[in-house]
Amino acid sequence: TEFVDSTGDVDSLLAGAQDLTGAAYTEIVGEFSTVSDIDLYKINIVSADSFAATTEINFGTHLDTELWLFDSNGLGVYFNDDSPNRATDMSLLPRPQGGLGPQAPGVYYLGVGVYELNALDEDGAEIFENPRNFNSVWDRLNAPLSNKPLASWRVFGTGGNPPGTYRVTMTGTGGEFFNIANETDTVLPEGFTMERAYPNPFSGVVSFDFAVAQAQFVRATVFNALGQAVQEAYSGFVTPANQQTVRIDGSGLPNGTYFIRVQGDGFHSTQTVTLQR
Questions:
Q1: Could you read off the pLDDT tens digit of each residue along the chain, which spans 277 residues?
Q2: Is 2-171 in CATH node 3.30.300.30?
Q3: Torsion over CA of 106, 112, 115 and 119, rounded to 10 degrees?
Q4: Spelled out in words, what is the top-level CATH class assigned to the domain 180-275?
Q5: Where are the domains of the chain?
């Protein structure tokens, strides 16, 4: 997995966005010094169906973050302030759903900021609805209001708690890779459970259940024997009350050994399955 450590200030507008399209980045680490500090990154999405991005909270200092995605022309794609059910102040752009999200591979712009910022178009109109209009429903996923490109930003409050450090993790941007020979499970948090995948070996679909003790973003990625990511089996926000089922569809994969890596807040666990028709 490649990551970029954003030392120095990253620009907030399209022309000065930090260009990450030259490599397959899956993680960004950056810093906010003030409430008006917005970082904009030019990214390459190679799989629109599996794209997702989330901020990690309590990384260094607590921040109330926001995430925006714009297309290659700077037009709004979708925006999120808080995680589902407002369980945390992290932000989540999930895999495309209900027409929201990237619809095709290509170049996009990912904006990272703190609460009480809004993107404006060339006419000074809001590209996405102001979170203060949400009637306390800050966890909603927002479609764009404007069909014009990003031109500026407006600060309408000071509630994001800067300064602080943030981390954004992404899928669908290519380059998901891990060294199988050196991969070992971390110490799993108390209350995390993960069943063994069944059936194994499998010929069509293999599945397993997992549960967490604390609300968090979890993703499950399938890697082949070369350590290349071949399928994102799960990506979403999980609450303790819900047991999640992960299903891996082997219909588009060749026979062989695969590694299912489940990654959550500060931990990961991997199990091996064999596709055999």
A1: 334 544 456 788 999 999 888 767 788 888 877 777 889 999 988 878 888 898 876 555 567 888 999 999 999 999 988 766 555 668 888 888 888 899 888 889 999 988 778 899 999 999 998 766 654 445 678 889 999 999 999 887 665 565 778 888 888 886 555 555 555 666 677 888 899 999 999 999 999 999 998 888 888 888 887 777 778 888 888 888 788 999 999 988 899 999 898 888 777 788 999 999 9
A2: no
A3: -50
A4: mainly beta
A5: 2-171, 180-275
